[in-house]
Fold:
Amino acid sequence: MSRLQAVGVMLVALGLIYALLYAAWLRKGRQHASAAIAAERRRTEDSPDPNHAPPAPAPTVKEDRTAQVVAEGTYVSTTTAASRLERVTVEGLGHRAKATLTVNRGQADQLVRIDRRGESTVVIPAGRLVSVRRDRGMAGKFIGANRMLVLQWKTPEGDVYETGFLPRFRADVDTIESALWWHTGATEDPASEAPTSTTPAPEGDPTA
Structure:
């Protein structure tokens, strides 16, 4: 076999490999299509230009700030509930990004809102939230302590997914968990068992 023929065979083999990978990616996207219900098409810009900022949107919750819990941190990823290593591919839900998580306790259709920088916003209504727990990690990031919050939610079709969020401050873990636990049907507030931090301690850049 000449060198030219060998190169041709190699190129054909590489083409077949990429075609198989692409087919697998499309198949995975079809399997996770139901998860797209959680993603809004609007994206939070990384560095918005203050001179060309769009008009401020109408408030989605009542002005009583006690109705909200807001925390900065990292959106880790969304996976299937069956495997926390199987990232959801649709709407960029498997992409890690810096984010702001808001718990709108006065608005059931947007109980949890995660505004991700450069990615679509993730919204979980109260009726779809199944559980919230602490974990050491999932696809996208693993840490040494149970500081990651994993929100399990379901689609109208019955598919179950898990979304991970790592708060920047330790104290926000308790705050978010306490704000959500009664929506999940739990019988005991998890914050009553978990130690709390009186002084917020940043973990550095959580996206590192």
Summary: Residues 3 and 9 are 10 Å apart (CA to CA).
